[in-house]
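Input chain follows. Return structure tokens only.
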Amino acid sequence: MRKILFYISTFLLFSFNIHSEENRLLEKEISIKVENERLDDFLNRLSQEVGGFFSYSPSAIDISQRITGDFTDKSCREILETVFQGKIKYKQKGNYIILSPAPAPEKEITISGYLVDESSGERIRNATVYDPITLKSSTTDEFGFFEIALKNPTGEDFELIINQERYTDTLLVDQKRSSFKRIFLRKETAETLTKPMKDFLQWAKESIGVKNSKNVRDTLSRNFQFSILPFLGTNHKLSGSVVNDYSINLFGGYSAGTNKFELGGLFNLDRGQVSGVQIAGLINQVGGSVKGFQIAGLANVNLDSLSGFQGAGLTNFTLRDVKGVQASPLLNISGGSINGFQASALANYTHKHVKGVQAGILGNIAGGYVEGFQFGLFNYADSVNGASIGLLSFVRKGYHTIEIGADEIYPINIGLRTGTRGFYNILSAGIRPEKADSTTWSFGYGIGTSPRLGKKTYLNFELNTSQMNKGKVLATNLINRIYLGIDYQLAKGVGIYGGPSFNIRIFDTSFDDHPETFAYFNPRVFGRKSIENLNLGQEIWWGFRAGIRFF
């Protein structure tokens, strides 16, 4: 992908900037006076002044005609326009200026000239001159020069619009079939300048097409456009200022927006809003909101909001709110809030709130509150009205406790609960001090819920499993527990708990050095049995748990 973008940007920059590099002789300003002099003699003198050579066919140009004029601080281009009155075309090639007859006027109108700051007299570069009907356009070069050719004129007055982001928009109305002119523009004050729109093509930001997008602040509309690459299509170099109903891009396209449908072989780039359906082989990038269905082979990148569906082969990114669905196998990101569903095989991130569901296999992050559910191995939220369900969930304004207690197996149990009272995770450890080399200890994990029963009273329903060990030796010896108890808050941040438990022990019968299950109490054990082919044994008993919690 990187190589593709590099080749495209190199092509655009080369194509759009070569014009100014070839016009230095034509832009050289000189002072020269001529009176009743043959054209060929005058051209010889003029070539010496500009430091180049004129190339022409004597049979195509009347070199015997007489020239009279006084040119002071004029460019070579302006002098040639005055002498030939638009009947001769000229083009620089190396150190040569090639002169040739202009096309017949019934086939083409050529309008050219300089754009000049009316206050300073400086020429204005990077301005856009365009025909609002055909969308043919020209961008002034470093000398402030533009040239635009309009084919098949109707004979009526034609209009050209001139835009530059720092100057007042100008309408040029002309009746001549071909003309060269010097046009003065008035600079806008700081208070009236319009903030330029976001520039998506960072890799080609010096191209004429992107300059046009900044200059042309009016939104143009077309029913249909086709492009091969950005600025190489039916909307020409003004594509970044045109909103299309239907847009087909062979490799990629660049537009001001799409109303109904857009399809790109590789990528679609829209500065403004997209409505309807947008499909790209690799990437969709939109500067405005998306309302509808958006799908891409790699990624969707929206710099505003989404209302609808966003699906990508790798990742989705929306800078502001999402109302609808984001679905991808890698990552979904919302810089605002989610009202709907985020689904990813890896992770989801929402900067603000979630109203609905976040489901990511690895995890989910919500910077604000969650009104709904989070499903993932790891979850984070500021607060939750619902549940964060996973291996480990942390809710900043949620349920966090550290407890110290005892049960029929261990005189010392330590537990950490994190999540919400609707659903929390439990990390636990137990210890039974004995001889230094035979201390019985355990580590475990569980889940639970704690609905309110009264003002200070809660019910605890928990499922927990822990591995019971002796010394450094580990062998299968799992204590699986269902616990139902009462949690009573004595004071702010302190509570007590207690209740019965139902326990099932699963252990390796081929191992002979398991620790004694009970040391201080001897509950009645029932349900003993062995699974010979798996070398597993089973024991069942009723137990209890009690202790103190710190919130």
